[in-house]
Amino acid sequence: MTWSELVMGAAPRRGDRPAVSDVRSGEVLSYAVFASRVKQVAAGLHRHGLRRGERVLVRLPVGASLPVAVHGVAWAGGIASLDASADARLVIGQGPTDAAAAGGAQRVFAVRAEPGAPPFGELRGHGELEFGPLAGPALALGGRVFDHTELGRDLRVLPARLSVRSSDVVLAAVSDVFTGLRLLDLALMVGAHVVVAHEPTLIGCRVLAQERRATLAVAPHDLAKRLLGDSSLRVLDERALVDSLIP
After folding, report:
1. 3-state SS of the chain: helix, strand, coil percent to 5?
2. Average pLDDT of every residue of the chain
3. Which of 72, 77, 110, 183 sits at a 20 to 30 Å CA gap from 88?
């Protein structure tokens, strides 16, 4: 089973239950919609000529669109690059200005509706790609390329090690995109619900945790320490999500 298959594996049983709630945009992504959009984005990228092993620059914040974009690229057989200045022909970003970050960029699919770039939703208008790759490179970060096997093997051990369960409502207050992607992957794999905080602060996280009945908060070390003390909220240092891949 590939990395993306693992992440989408809970979709059939979780169906219309919420997968990701994005406080920034107000979007709530269900499990069924998540899996469908990944396959639609993959089909759209194929239509735009994505070649196996080709890099697509993904310049998005942690939120509902991030796992759809990353796994859409990986499901299409491409490499989702989180390196801000990577060379790429295709870019998935917030707006047309993201093209300036990629050498040789020919097309930017923008999550925000702005003049000068086709919308990210344009990739979803060409059906679904039912079958992804069996193996191969999938994610690029910091000069390294991770393949499906490595990412999937590492992801499988995280639920038991970090005690993340399908019943959890996870407050994501992480500090960077890769850590956020790892948290989203983990939560989606087990069938949990992720609530993504926008510019998280101590007070903001406490309020959001109470409003959304969060059971687990994941945050940078200093913020995680300050969130301790609420018996109803488990707290996890975000470093535990990435130290097995990037020591």
Report:
1. 40, 20, 40
2. 91
3. 183
